[in-house]
Amino acid sequence: MKPIKLTFAIIWILYFLWVASNPAAWSFFDNLDLAIHETGHLVFRPFGEFLMVAGGSIFQIAFPATFIGYFIWQKSYYSAAIIAVWIGQSILNVYVYANDSIVMQLPLTSGMTGSEGGFHDWNYLLTELNLIHKTQLVAKIIRFTGTLVIIVSGIFSIVFALAEEPDTEL
After folding, report:
1. CB within 8 A of 116, min separation 6: which ones?
2. Residue 164's pLDDT band (boundaries 50, 70, 90)?
3. Is 113 helix (H, G, I), strand (E, B) or coil?
4. Rounded to two decimals, what is the model's pTM?
5. What is the pLDDT of residues 86-133, one digit of tens each?
6. Which H helix or E strand runs over 88?
7. What pLDDT shows up at residue 1?
8. Which residues of 160-170 are buried (b: 16+ CB within 10 A; e: fewer)?
């Protein structure tokens, strides 16, 4: 089982490092992230406008984190580390959205861009927090965080793939 886990971990990490090198390029997980993101708006809707808007990005990261909690509870550390790599990619997906908060050129679920009148979550959030003038700094911090999560989680997935652990789940 070790060679299969190790091979999978290496391929998984290389794919997500490629994603980290160009987060704006489409990746396999983007459509899944979008569905989770939009669900987050519904989940956070009862908590007011600001949290409803922020809830998309929050839920996009929190949802896969629940799987990490489950795998840690099951002592399936390899599986937890593999899912944590996905969280890093999801954070990078949030970076792309946050980085677009001034120019608002990303296509939104409405079919429009923010500059065409569509609602842009991160333009709203950063404006409300009086950080719109710090968009580039906020985006860089988010990108750094996502890349760091991918690297650290990737290292742990390799370590756990090589360890003698009874983890059979992916």
Report:
1. none
2. low
3. strand
4. 0.90
5. 999 999 999 999 999 999 888 877 776 677 777 889 999 999 999 999
6. helix 77-99
7. 61
8. bbeeebebeee
Question: Does 51 score more than 60 pLDDT?
Answer: yes
- Residues 39-45: contacts with CB under 8 Å, at least 24 apart: 39/63
Q: How many CB atoms lie within 10 A of CB 8?
A: 15
Q: Strand, coil or helix: what is 107?
A: strand
**Is 146:74 a contact under the CB 8 Å cutoff?**
no
Dihedral of the alpha carbons of 130, 135, 137, 139, in degrees to the nearest 10: 120
Closest CA to 57 of 137, 115, 150, 124: 124
Length of the chain: 170
